[in-house]
Amino acid sequence: MKVFLFLIACIVSFQLSAQKSLKVTDKSIVKDSSGNVYPPAVWRALYMKGDYDLKAEDPNNTNTAFFLVRLPEQDKQKRFAKMSKPKESDFFKTGKKISLFNATDINGNAVDLKELKDKIVVMNFWFINCGPCRREIPDLNNLVEKFKDNDKVVFVAVGLDPVDAQKMFIEKMPFNYKLVEGRNLASNYGIRLYPTHVIVDTESKVYFHTSGLAMNTIYWIEKSINELVSKTNDIAAQ
Fold first, then answer.
1. pTM for the full predicted model
2. Which of 193, 197, 192, 190 is nearest to 217 (CA)?
3. Distance separating alpha carbons of residues 50 and 28, to the nearest angstrom
């Protein structure tokens, strides 16, 4: 966790210093327009989610305080688009066909990805005590909502926790992917870092994959799905 927070601090410090020759640190005062001061852990979480930017109160003062400013959705997307693509995971290879699996979801329903022909499969590997895994769930739910009318896109979350634990968890925090208990499934793919995301195209070839939670991970998941949907539609129209 300390390493994770240090990396966040470096990212924020670098971006602000690159733009304005200013740095924000644990000692910086970060507040909202009402003057409420935020602890470092809170403002960093808001910043890294991408919903807020940090604006210097006095750009000419190296010891300036900073304001948390909520970004309009359009500005958020522009910000994410300018960032580097999230680092690829070590567990998949782009363009390589992978073996999909059949399993049972936590409600006892069959989830047979091998039989999902011509589908775009969006997979998330996670576990309950993984902080980044939990933080991204609301945004992943938003993705499910955006593509709910497209039967070509299937969302599956492979959790390391037992079925009963997952059921108890979603009572407090709903997760709208198809939830599968799959410690062995994750092991079969050699996954050791969480969360790990992988998107496969209609031929079961890896199109996008990443581990960890970058500021623009969700942006790239949605972007990749849209690209595959567009390609699928183009092929169907031919």
1. 0.81
2. 197
3. 19
